[in-house]
Amino acid sequence: MNNKNITIILAPLQGFTDVTFRNVWARHFTGIDEAIAPFISTMGQQRLKPSRIKDVAPENNQHLFVIPQILGNVSTDFIFLADHLYEMGHKRINWNLGCPHSKIAKKHRGSGLLPYPAKIDELLTQIIPNISADLSVKIRLGRRSKDEIFNLLTMFDRHPLEEIILHPRTGIQMYEGTSDQDAFEKAIENSRHTFTYNGDIIDIDSFKTVQERFPGITRFMIGRGILANPFLAEEIKGTPKNTTPRPTRLKAFHDELFAQYDKIFSGPAHLTGRMKGFWTYLGPSFKESKKPLKQILKSTSIPAYQDRVEAFFDQKLEFGP
């Protein structure tokens, strides 16, 4: 497969695709062109601390081009944060209008704003003329109904957005069911904007299905698919084959990721908890991995975790479909 003219974007997954993951991934794999960082909540000037924005500090992101994402619904706070990010060197910013989690949505943030296109319209009218960065939006079809998208698109057409990243599910669906490609098709037919496709690209076959359905789309966002198969972007791009066995590459990736997080997290529960989160995606991609994966996920100490990971890789399980 040769898809060198497409752009693959790493999706922002809170608790997973932070700067540590992005940097380690990029040292072991190829194929991702951009990454949208997990969201930064808007904050007033008094609350702007270096720790809140270090994930997107340019000096910490030398391996992947990163775009900050803002979560919020107050224009003055949005503008303040966007301006600070611009001064850091970020010429592109994304607005999170798609987060499906109820705790966020009930505060009319993320997908919780989608039922209120007039409010989004008002915010964009205030924000865009007052920031220097280009602004894109990441959205879903709606919060509760996929029909919400049409009022949103009419409103978005009044604003000079860089692009619309559309995950064709509703917010209340979370990640259940399948992404609605029919709805995505209707959306791109009813908008003047450029679109990025996001949703359920988990392997080569699912990518081909999306690409054949939407030949005009050249930008694709992938999140869970990369966590489950870190080679996926390489496979899609058709990059030169790396002859190192895949389990060997994955072991090296895992070990560096573990070592880097070990420098950050203060206690064993935090470190093993973060690593076990990755295993919930990566582990099932190995054939016959159910029992050894279960042992990893049951680990309650760092030594036990390390021993069980070594035992997992020692079994030389086949990786991939």
Structure overview:
The protein is α/β, with parallel strands linked by helices. It is built from 14 helices and 10 strands. β7 (134-142), α6 (148-156) and β8 form a beta-alpha-beta unit. The relative contact order is 0.12. The mean pLDDT is 95.
Secondary-structure topology with pairs:
Layout: E1 7-10, H1 19-28, E2 34-36, E3 40-41, H2 50-53, E4 65-67, E5 69-71, H3 75-88, E6 92-97, H4 102-105, H5 117-127, E7 134-142, H6 148-156, E8 164-170, H7 181-189, E9 195-198, H8 204-213, E10 219-222, H9 224-228, H10 232-237, H11 246-262, H12 268-282, H13 290-297, H14 302-314
Parallel strand pairs: 1-2, 1-10, 2-4, 3-5, 5-6, 6-7, 7-8, 8-9, 9-10
Which features characterize this protein?
321 residues; alpha/beta; TIM Barrel; 2 domains; ten-stranded parallel β-sheet; 14 helices; 10 strands; 42% helix; globular
Tell me the number of strands: 10
Structural class estimated from helices and strands: alpha/beta
CATH topology of the largest domain, by name, is TIM Barrel
Residue share in helices? 40-55%
**SSE pattern, N- to C-terminal:** EHEEHEEHEHHEHEHEHEHHHHHH
Which overall shape is indicated by the principal axes computed on the Cα atoms?
A: globular
Strand content range: 5-15%
How many discrete domains? 2
Report the major sheet.
10 strands, parallel
What's the rounded overall pLDDT mean? 95
How many separate helices?
14
CATH hierarchy class name of the largest domain: Alpha Beta
Question: How would you summarize this macromolecular structure in one to three sentences?
Answer:
With 321 residues, the chain is of the alpha/beta class. Helices cover 42% and strands 14% of the residues. It contains 14 helices and ten strands.
